[in-house]
Amino acid sequence: MNKELEKLGPLYNVYHDLYVPTENGGTSQVDHVVTSPTGIFVIETKHYDGWIFGKENQRNWTQVIYKRKEKFLNPIWQNHGHIKALKGYLGEHYNFQSIVAFSSKSTLKFEVDFSSARVIHIPQLNKVIKESLNRQISEVELRGINKALEKLVIHDGKQKRIVHKQHVEAIRDKQREKATIKPVVKKAPFIEANTELCPKCGGQLSIKKGKYGSFYGCSGYPGCKYTAKVS
């Protein structure tokens, strides 16, 4: 994925795995940002198999593999949060474009096109980015944008692990605050799984069924193989 984006050419600057500060003092973890004279492309990647179903206004989408169904947060909404953080950090007036890119192993089963984001397969990514031909950002503005994004790049692995841990802990603290305000409904095991984060990679945990019963699995599988028992 990273190597593919690097093939875009000299007009494009590519940034991976950024932690963008938010207005509430936390951070928003953005998979990829591509800057160019034609706009700022904010990319959310999903390495999922199976059939993918969802609508623009649905909170959760569905992944279907044979007879098994898994829910996951609408990635368009997820990327909207990333763009909101970037607008707060870089400025509201730039041309931000939202792209959700799924693994080519998935089959996208959408009934209608989306108005607020492009939802595509990863191999289509560079082509979609290059579809934008009109200059939207001046050279001076682009230098300022790239300089600001460079400040978010963490080259030291240890420092990145610390920042990631702080990011995950902040999300969990926020979830705990919500839990004290909202009563827990009885059907909550599945809801909890959707909102719980993987302590290893920060992905979403959901309930899966295996040979020895139900367990929590990470949405980052097979890259992340974290599992936990269902209590």
Describe this structure in words.
The protein has 231 residues and is of the alpha/beta class. The protein is built from six helices and twelve strands. Strand 2 and strand 3 form a beta hairpin. The chain is globular and about 60 Å long. The relative contact order is 0.14. About 4% of the residues have low confidence.
Defining traits:
five-stranded mixed sheet, alpha/beta, four-stranded mixed sheet, 6 helices, 12 strands, 231 residues
Percent strand equals: 25-35%
Please summarize the sheet with the most strands.
Answer: 5 strands, mixed
Q: Enumerate how many helices there are, as a single number.
A: 6
N-to-C series of helices and strands: HEEEEEEHEEEHHHHEEE
Structural class: alpha/beta
Strand order of the largest sheet: 1-2-3-7-9
Alpha carbon gap, first and last residue = 36 Å
Which ranges are low-confidence, i.e. pLDDT below 50, for 5 or more consecutive residues? 186-195
Cα-atom Rg, whole angstroms? 18 Å
Summary of the model, kept short:
The chain has 231 residues and is α/β, with parallel strands linked by helices. The protein has helices spanning 2-6, 75-90, 125-130, 139-150, 157-181, 188-195, and strands spanning 13-21, 27-36, 39-46, 50-53, 60-65, 68-73, 96-102, 106-108, 118-121, 205-210, 213-218, 227-229.
